[in-house]
Design goal:
The protein has 221 residues and is an alpha/beta fold. The protein is built from 11 helices and 8 strands. The chain has one domain (2-216): Aldolase class I (TIM Barrel). α6 (118-126) links the parallel β5 (110-115) and β6. α4 (69-79) crosses α5. It is globular and about 70 Å long.
Length: 221
């Protein structure tokens, strides 16, 4: 199971790479806007942070192109050469799937984002997607079952031996991370604060407090 950080905040990414050995980064328009930096500048800055590694940076194409596969392809062709670590993100739409096939055939890796059904995921896999990004936080927040959704995508991938990696996105808590790992998803991507909360536990804090009391009352040598 790989952990990706969902962020375009350079300081967060730097800590996550150093402290957690994060395996990759996913960006989207909201994260880029939150960074306060121009799109091309910040994604290239992030790419430089993982240069020389196998860590990927998912870079999203303009959402306005969701019904224009030619425009998605043209943008993907412009973005991919900027950094060998880039994976080009496009939506799970008819035109997104078509653009994925064209770019994949040209050797450009693609991440099909905004996936909300197993059939969308299946089509992304058929079209050669490097990653498929099922969004679970949004679905769960709307009262939908996300556990079966992830299981179905993993089963489809395994049944037909697709090369696509299942990248579980919009992850909101540690339970979702653990479940995705338990059913064989390849990757989760979550915000910096989600990992911080998931890595912590009140009983760990309680145990440390108690152990410190004993330690402080014990002779070291």
């Amino acid at each position: 199971m790989k952990f990706f950080l969902d962020s375009a905040i350079v300081d967060e990414i730097r800590v996550a790479l150093d402290l957690w050995d994060i395996d990759g980064i996913t960006t989207n328009p909201r994260h880029v806007q939150a960074s306060g930096k121009p799109f091309l500048g910040v994604v290239q800055e992030i790419g430089a942070m993982v240069a020389g590694t196998d860590k990927t940076v998912s870079v999203q194409t303009n959402p306005a192109h969701h019904n224009n596969w030619q425009a998605i392809v043209e943008e993907g062709r412009r973005l991919a050469p900027l950094c060998p670590n880039f994976v080009i993100k496009m939506p799970s739409t008819e035109h997104g799937f078509k653009a994925c096939r064209v770019l994949t055939d040209e050797g450009i890796r693609c991440n099909l984002t905004l996936c909300f059904s197993a059939v969308q995921g299946l089509q992304a896999m058929r079209m050669g997607a490097h990653y498929i990004s099922p969004f679970i936080g949004w679905k769960e927040g709307n009262g939908e079952d996300t556990d079966q959704f992830i299981e179905d995508l993993v089963d489809i991938r395994d049944n037909f031996d697709f090369d696509t990696e299942v990248l579980v996105a919009a992850v909101r808590n540690g339970r979702q991370i653990a479940f995705a790992a338990s059913v064989g998803a390849d990757i989760v991507t979550a915000a910096y604060a989600v990992y911080q909360e998931a890595f912590a536990h009140p009983y760990t804090d309680l145990g440390l407090h108690r152990f410190q009391e004993f330690w402080d009352k014990t002779q070291y040598e």
